[in-house]
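Could you join me in thinking about how sequence relates to backbone shape in a protein? We need material for that, and I hope you will provide a protein of your own picking. Once you have written the record down, we can walk along the chain together:

…
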Amino acid sequence: MRGFSTKLGGRVLAALLVVFTALVATLATVQNAQSADLTTPSFLVATRDLQDPQFQHAVILMIPSTEPPLLAGVIINSPAKLRVRDMFPQAHQLKSTQETIYLGGPVEPDEASVIFRASAAPGSAMRIFDDTYVATGHDAIAGVLKDPRFTDIRVILGKAQWLRDQLYSEVMRGAWYVVPAKSDLVFSDPKDLWSTLVQGGDLQEAEAGQAPALNLPQWRSGGTNWQRLISPN
């Protein structure tokens, strides 16, 4: 009986340890939810678990929101059948990857914006990060398209938009990887962008081993959160 009691006590202790570990992980998740900052320059990369057909395989560039406290972003890897010249005949000669209009998300699907690179902000354009800017409104977009100085350009219809807590909740449920944004990736060929970034996220999670299912990104210079924040190559 003593041996049985010892085994039973060991099992109970192990079970309590599992519960305690899960509780600590949950508390850490809550603290991360309060400290994470998804307004910093970043991509949202749909994980393989995301089933929403509007966002499957999506790579979203977070942009300055014009309607705080809402957070906003545009899908950058979903080309449409429309051409830029169909909406903006005055556009100068564009690269093949720039001639197509992209579908940026389900919110305001008829409203256009342009993402581009510049040494300084022209007109009413807003800086996203580094040398990458966004402009909205027909006249502002037409001005960017006519200017031969801007060689990296992407015209996008619509956007994605979340309440702060809503987006944090989606990250916590494992719907998104959060990736530090890079200009070269914004304007790269969209064909393999999602698969490249999501494989990087899968690899880092696998290397980290077993971990709590819920974990928010922590924004740190010179380091990454192993579960939902990955660095592009």
Helices lie at 2-35, 84-87, 138-146, 164-172, 183-186, 193-208. Residues 12-36, 206-233 have pLDDT under 50 and may be disordered. The chain is about 35% helix and 25% strand.
